Amino acid sequence: MNWLDHIRWDADGLVPVIAQEAATGDVLMFAWMNREALARTAELRQAVYFSRSRQRLWHKGEESGHFQVVHEIRVDCDQDVVLLKITQQGHEPGIACHTGRHSCFFERLEGNAWQAVDPVLKDPASIYR
C-alpha cells in the first residue's frame, strides 16, 4: 500500500493541514493538501499546499520568499488531518501569514470582540509585489 493511501481524503480529494513551528510549538497556519501537494511536500521537504481559491498547487513562499522547511509529517489517529512540523523561513521571526504576522492565528476573543494581539512584522505590501 502506498503511504498516501493511508490518508482519509475528503470528497474533494483534500486533507486539512496544520503547520506547527518545530522549535516553539506555535501553530502558524491551516491549509489544505491534495495527494500531489502532500507527495511534493514529502519529496521537497518544503510545504506545498493546494489553494482552493486558485484551484492549483501553492508552494508556500513562492511569492513571498517565506518558505516552510518540513522536519516531520504526521497524521492524526483518524488519518484525516496532517500536521507539519516546520521551520518558517524568510524573516526573523518567520512570517507565515499573508498579513505579515508570524502566525495566521493573531486574533484573540476578548469579551465579545476579536482583538489583534500579535504585531505585523513586515508590511504585506512589501512582501507581495
Largest sheet: 4 strands, mixed
Structural class, please? mainly beta
- Label the overall shape: globular
**CATH architecture descriptor name:** Roll
What's the tally of helices? Answer: 2
Q: Low-confidence segments, ≥5 residues, pLDDT <50?
A: none
Task: Kindly report the CATH topology.
Answer: Ubiquitin-like (UB roll)
What is the name of the CATH superfamily? Answer: Phosphoribosyl-AMP cyclohydrolase
Assign a percent range to the helix content. Answer: 10-25%
DSSP strand (E) fraction?
Answer: 25-35%
Rounded to an integer, what's the Rg over CA atoms? 15 Å
Descriptive overview:
- The protein has 129 residues and is mainly β.
- It contains 2 helices and 8 strands; from the N terminus they run ββαββββββα.
- The chain has one domain: Ubiquitin-like (UB roll) (Roll).
- It is globular.
- The model has no long low-confidence stretch (mean pLDDT 94).
